[in-house]
Amino acid sequence: MANLKDIQRQIKSVSNTQKTTRAMKLVSTAKLRRAEELAKRSRLYAQKMNQVIAEIAGRIKCNRVGGLSKNVLESVDKSENRMFESIEDPKMVDIVFVTADKGLCGGFNIQTIKAVNKLLKEYKAKNVKVRLRGIGKKGIEYFNYNEVEMLDTVVGLSSKPNKEKSDDFIMTSVADFRDGKIDALHIVYNGYKNMITQELHVNQVLPIDADQFDCQEAQSSSMLEIEAEDEEKMLDSLVEKYINYNMYYSLIDSVAAEHSARMQAMDTATNNAKEMVKNLNVQFNKARQAAITTELIEIISGVESMK
Predict the structure, then answer these.
(1) CA nearest 255: which of 155, 135, 161?
(2) Are 132 and 151 within 8 A, CB to CB?
């Protein structure tokens, strides 16, 4: 039977841990409300932006039907055309991953890391070189520990998303894509779905995919019309905004998911601590009763021996 003082010490330790996890849960809940509101507001804009870009990419695929002129390809730089070209045999790709700067959020970070490792294995099997670019301390520490080479890293951006820093970070890969140094760009992150669920995203940002675009439907149902003299300028502006906002939205979505995951993890930890304290109290009471019983037996035995 464990010593009573040892059990009391364990009860006190677990109770203190329970207070800490409860406080962390409350903090994460408060942060989640703000992050969730921002993510929901940003999601609609991101979805509309993706729809417009997908339609433009589809029209390029369908020889500029319904509003984009046939000679746009000739008026735009060849490097710009790469944004919409399907590259069948890539030689080098960039993978940008987003993880949290802190732990204690369940499997939030490990899900992203597993997705990145899966991509790395797939490209390695195809003899494609990969440049890994990391945002978030936990993911960076993991790949550094496993001696995986990374092109560049940023700490602090995933916990406090900043549009300017986000743009600067992603535009390095975009410039390399335009110059032909890389043939694809992926963004991998764990996003927010609801209060209790996170959703893993592995998005190919470049080249822009038009495979799901229906040419016949576009001719009859599309409402996107563009003035011919504005096409080149509009295309440049939209592509840049699309890429920049995809990166920024990934950070916003990720931080909301992080707080959601941490809130759940701390709630689970608090409940586990509560259950542990309950079990320790039962163990303490049993030990105390056993000690009292032993003392009574000793007293009775002493009295009996004196008769």
Answers:
(1) 161
(2) yes
| Beta carbons within 10 angstroms of residue 145's beta carbon | 8
CA torsion through residues 70, 72, 77, 79, sign: negative
Q: Measuring CA to CA, which residue among 80, 78, 82, 84 is closest to residue 233?
A: 80
First to last CA, the chain: 32
Question: How many angstroms separate the Cα of 231 from the Cα of each of 75, 77, 83, 134?
Answer: 9, 13, 15, 34
Q: In the predicted model, what is the mean pLDDT of residues 99-121?
A: 93
- In degrees and rounded to multiples of 5, residue 203 shows phi and psi of -105, 130
**Coil vs helix vs strand at 151:** coil
CA angle 178, 53, 205 (to 5 degrees): 50
What are the structural domains, with CATH classification, of the chain? 42-262 (3.40.1380.10)
Q: Where are the beta strands (DSSP E) in the chain?
A: 92-98, 129-135, 152-154, 184-194, 197-206
CA 197 to CA 81: how far, in whole Å?
38
pLDDT in tens, 162-215: 999 999 999 999 999 988 899 999 999 999 988 888 999 999 988 887 655 555
CA–CA separation, 166 and 183 (whole Å): 21
Copy the structure tokens of residue 123.
Answer: 């490209």
Q: Give one DSSP letter per residue of 277-301, joined into a string.
A: HHHHHHHHHHHHHHHHHHHHHHHHH
Q: What are phi and psi of 207, to 5 degrees?
A: -70, 155
The count of other CB atoms within 10 Å of the CB of residue 235 is: 22
Closest CA to 97 of 245, 254, 206, 259: 254
> Which pLDDT does position 79 carry in this prediction?
42
User: What would the pLDDT profile of 204-255 be if each residue is shown by its tens digit?
Assistant: 988 887 655 555 554 544 555 555 445 556 677 788 888 899 899 999 999 9
